[in-house]
Amino acid sequence: MAAAAVLLLCAGLVQAAPQPASAAPTRYEAENGTRSTGSTVDTNHKNYSGSGFVNSNNAVGAYVEVTVNAAAAGNAAIAIRYANGTGANRPADVSVNGTVVSAARAFDATANWDTWADSTLTVAVKAGSNRIRLASTTADGLANIDYIDFDGASGGDTQAPTPPGAPTCSAVTESALTLSWGASTDNVGVAKYDVYEHGNKINEVDGSLTSDHLTGLTPHTTYNLTVLARDAAGNVSQASPAVDCTTLPSTDTTPPTKPGTLTASNVTANSVDLKWGASTDDKGVTSYEVRSSDNVYKAVTGNPPGTSTTLTGLACDSPYSLTVVAKDAGGNVSPPGNAVSFTTATCRTDGGVPSSITTLSSNWTIPWGTYWMPDSSSALVTERDSFKVYKVTPNGTRTQVGSVPNAVTTDGEGGLLGVAVDPKWATNHYVYFMHTAAEGNRVVRMTYNGSALDNYTVLLQGIKKNRYHNGGRLAFGPDGYLYASTGEAQTPSLAQDKNSLNGKILRMTTDGKPAPGNPFNNYVYSYGHRNPQGLAFDRNGRLWEAEFGDSKKDELNLIKPGANYGWPTCEGSCSTAGMTNPKASWPTGQASPSGIAIVRNVVYMAALKGERLWRIPITGDTENVGTPTAYYVGSYGRLRTVTKVPGEDAFWLSTTNGDNNGSGGAGSDKIFKVLIK
Which residues form the signal peptide (predicted)? Predict the structure, then answer.
């Protein structure tokens, strides 16, 4: 791996994004790719690279496949590192994007299984992602495969298109609209335009078009839309300005009838079975919602939707009063049916549960990062859009101690994000921030004397930014190194590129250098992430992470060095070899998770869109978790950050109701204190 370029700036020593030297190939470890069923990642031989090598199953067609990224179309050199201690040739077909480019290629015997050799060839690749597969042509399977070095086609296109022009809406109906925008320019040509609603991609059109007709929309609903351009090499523009487009009210104004009698049965500590009578509607019922007051616990959909469900994720030993309403395609809502009341069974856990919540501090506007001082005398709290930093005492008294220079917003999720305090603060007075700047996202260091910030120093830059998907959480691990979560900047391919800083958990020294022992000899600790915003270490020193999904599943992951967490191939659990599945996942409407904290071996996860706090118990010292349960559903709005209070069975919990997605305005956010008993 090429060393990171080092720039000497007046602000201090700055580590730029890692840039491969012109002669250095990119290494793709076989164990991080996909492989045939029965193939294993082994470590029982010497001299391999990365975290292991692939030992294929003994069968015709046994395979290993890696996905490489080429900056441009053309010829590329690949070197396949292998070992074959059998004494006989183990031939394999080498294919690129499904086309065999070297049939029954020889992988001859090496001296023993500890001796590795390179098989090199030149292949034609297209711009962007390319699949390189080795498939055995005999029943003996493949040789052991360590990695593939890829030297991409020269003269690649690295210039991103310009941002699309401001979008506008026309031909608006109750279920559709036409979105139009100004054309982007690109040195080679725009290949595609991607349309986003907030941070979720909803469609794409050809680069020759500058409009998209969106259908299947909900009546009388506001959609916040932006457009991004990308070229054939995979370069993605910054987002266009956003536009709010509101569909027309439905011409159907007749609500469904009230649902029939609701009954509850099989009440446990965390669940209940519900059943009700069907509603009728002049156009048809599209869904039922299980509610407590106006807070939606679950939506039941279908054609027609069912009239029973098992409601899970309930808090133990807690009273509930639930009703059901019916909805139609016009957004009309029926009167609620009868209410059922019950109390869930007694808690059966030694991890404790939330027992009380009190307001600690008010009048905040998007408090984002929270980190306690080592002496527990106070915590530092950042505000995302004001770029201000506050000292907050245990009783909630706050004092501004400064602002972070050079921070900018993205009119989305960027700005002043995470904060961390050096474990050796008493002697070095260092604190760390992650923020969005003019060129991208940065990790910076400042000095803090207990009352004021000073000495802004950039440690790492070159982390791409966009309107959404900027990550931003910082945390010190028990190893003394600084961990940072980065989003893929609305460019999904970056998550799988181990030479990119985006879509990753990064691990670095307090001087901004890659931490020793990182799996790929750069900043990257784990990869395949979409938009990770929660980091917390458990009592065994293991790192847990919460991550926004796109439209299917949000995730809670146990992070391991060198592991691939799947995006964009996987969202939630999948069966793709080489991808690491989450320990728990949720529909995006129930979570959209940001911060996490661990108290008494329980993960507490704040949910933004889901407007609830999830409690996920870790099962002893295993890698498994128990049943997630939800607290405060809809009670406090969008929940952002969870931070354990040192020396107490308690945590701080902050809201984000003052952002573009919230119902509050400036000064509407709060920090709560939650006790665990």
Answer: 1-16
